UniProtKB/TrEMBL annotation:
Keywords: Kelch repeat, Repeat. This is Copper amine oxidase N-terminal domain-containing protein. Pfam families: Cu_amine_oxidN1. It comes from Paenibacillus alginolyticus. InterPro entries: Cu_amine_oxidase-like_N, Gal_Oxidase_central_sf, Kelch-typ_b-propeller, Mao_N_sf. PANTHER family: KELCH PROTEIN (PTHR24412), RING FINGER DOMAIN AND KELCH REPEAT-CONTAINING PROTEIN DDB_G0271372 (PTHR24412:SF489).
Amino acid sequence: MKYFKIIFSIFSVIIINTLILTSCFAEDNGSWETIGEYTDQYNPPISSVLPNGNVLIVNGNPYESDKSAKYYDPENKTFTATNERTGSGASDLIVLNNDLVMLVGGHRTDTSEPFGARTQDSIFSPLRDIQAKIDYRASSPEVEFYNVKTNSWSIGKNLPSAMSWPKGITLKDGRVLVFGGEKVTTEGSYYPSGVRVQIYEPNSDSWKVGAGFIFNSLGDHISSCRNIIVLPNNKVFVQFGASNSTSTLKIYDPVSDIWEDVAEPYPENQIIKHDYYFTSELADGKILLLRGMYLNKEAYLKAKEVKIYNYKDNTWTNAAELPEQLQNPSLTYLSSINKVLVFGYHFDPESYKSSDYYYVTEFYDPLKDVWITGIQNPQAQDPKILLLKNENVMSYGELGSNRNLKLIEIYTPPLPAIKVFINNIAQSYEVDPYIMNGNTMVPLRGIFEQLGATVSWDENTKTAKSIKSNTAVEIRIGSNQAKVNGKELSLEQAAVIMNGSTMVPLRFIAESLGAKVEYDSVQRSVFINIKNEK
């Protein structure tokens, strides 16, 4: 019977700690929620978050003549159609500072001319000293505006020149930068793609042509703009490329209208054909880069590699590798938890089977340089993800083989870590504080010593004893009873072991040692005030 009790006690501790670990793992990784299925011909959908938190969605397929648009209300989980657009197709939606959204890359031609196909004089002709013509079937110079307040569309002034799959961003001063590529052609021969920025001045409702550059070497570059990140020094990091071309990285200075070179992430002998990158900003202005497109075995073997760019000294450093290769990943930075959410799918290009094709959610923690595997979102195919105002993430992708059937899923990230302040001084612990059954749990030794108490540990009884002035506190792992100066008191939450650390209920410990405790649920912060002994 004695041995049975011992075994039962050990088994109970294992079960309790397993449940604790499972609970904390779920909290650390957030959760996905399926919102519903919707039907549209938006392949792919182009979307942007409006100032009111709604999501504007239009058709990104220039082949389609669909002039519809809609916005999604995340709070009420409803779609509402906007007034009919003046054109169709789109490359990007850019939110301005005046309740307007600029649409670029669409067209207002009829369906007999898909993409708005036509030619015009290339602005790159003087640079190449040739009489070149540009075929910009992937886009057109037309611009539309969506008014958030009136829910209506209007025609804007054209871009000075058409660009291939343009993408833009609004600066703090209100100006809009639109980046895109142009392929210069002569008699069917192709020269390296060129890239240019075009600048919109909202005060004068006018455009001007900014600086451009041409790729140095011949090749199958496709100079679509893929990502734009404004750096802390107000310069702009821009990524160009496409899934079947090698990415090009540049920095644009909107003050001097000058392009600056970005150091190559990989030496020339390590660059793979079709080396396509995926990037995301980090908290300190650094940039995370993934090698997330593998069209052959060589690329597949290198697809776990991760780099971090430091704009201050124009250098790249190695980061922890991805746990597994992710094809065509989507990245977004979650500032509330200081992690990058990465969502993509995995398969081996040489032994591809439908059963081997699966989606994966990963988190990158830049402080610890580690990857954390998250909760898988198994339903949407090739989804577009968008960071909402509340820092939830919206996934809008195809469902099954029907490309017109869409699935919306919302990812809710974990809540940010609990912050602890003692006499207004922020505290740090090896294991982050967390909430369990309404109690903030903190590492035992850390909290006792920070409150000025001495700590001893009895390994046989799994009991911690602390003394501060005339107060002695005893607390045992797994017990809902504790002693203060020999008097037994009940605990709402027993002490537990988490990642090798004994975690105890903070409020009970602090108040037992004479401290005052306040909890701010909005800031997720605990404030402890205790008198220092003289």
